[in-house]
Specification:
single chain, alpha+beta, Aminopeptidase, 6-stranded mixed β-sheet, 6 helices, globular, Acyl_CoA_acyltransferase, acyltransferase activity, transferring groups other than amino-acyl groups, GNAT_dom
């Protein structure tokens, strides 16, 4: 029920690929079941409050070419602008590069989502292209920005730090 509430919230949903869709509660279970078997999806949780805050994951994982697409959202607006998105992205990049051995992780972001673009850049993503006027809201058109990061550009390696404890 929480995801349905968030995804149907225009202030949040306008930034997501699912923005033009209204997702009924009956469809939430189906979507969550599909996500549980496609790619790698993780809940973002405040453990102290035992509260669901959002979701992040790697989709369209290609183990032959070692690529994937990143998706993330913080649904609970009380947690916006607190650095949780950056922390979640760094963790999922660490998982992608150091656990499942990916080489390239890309994402798509709407050109008007300046806060997300700034976060992605802090995490090391670089703009690789813009699909011009790909998003339309009312009579305004916006670009869709494509960004990626390579394993060689990623600075974090939690795995090595964890393994050091066992040596």
């Amino acid at each position: 029920m929480k995801y349905t509430e968030w995804l149907n919230d225009l202030e949040l949903g306008i930034h997501l690929v699912s923005a033009p869709q209204v997702i009924p509660l009956s469809k939430e279970r189906e979507i969550l079941e599909r996500l549980s078997v496609e790619g790698y999806n993780f809940a973002i949780v405040d453990f102290e409050k035992d509260e669901l805050l959002g979701n992040c994951g790697l989709l369209n994982v290609d183990f032959i070419n070692r690529t994937a697409e990143l998706g993330i959202f913080i649904g609970n607006k009380e947690y916006w602008n607190r650095g949780l998105g950056q922390e979640a992205i760094e963790l999922i990049l660490n998982f992608g590069f150091n656990i499942i051995n990916l080489n390239n992780i890309m994402l798509r972001v709407r050109g008007f989502n300046k806060r997300a673009i700034k976060c992605y850049e802090k995490c090391g993503f670089k703009v690789i292209g813009i699909r011009r006027e790909a998003i339309t809201f009312g009579d305004k058109k916006y670009g869709e920005i494509y960004m990626d990061i390579l394993a060689s550009e990623f600075k974090g390696d939690i795995v090595s730090k964890i393994l050091e404890n066992f040596e």
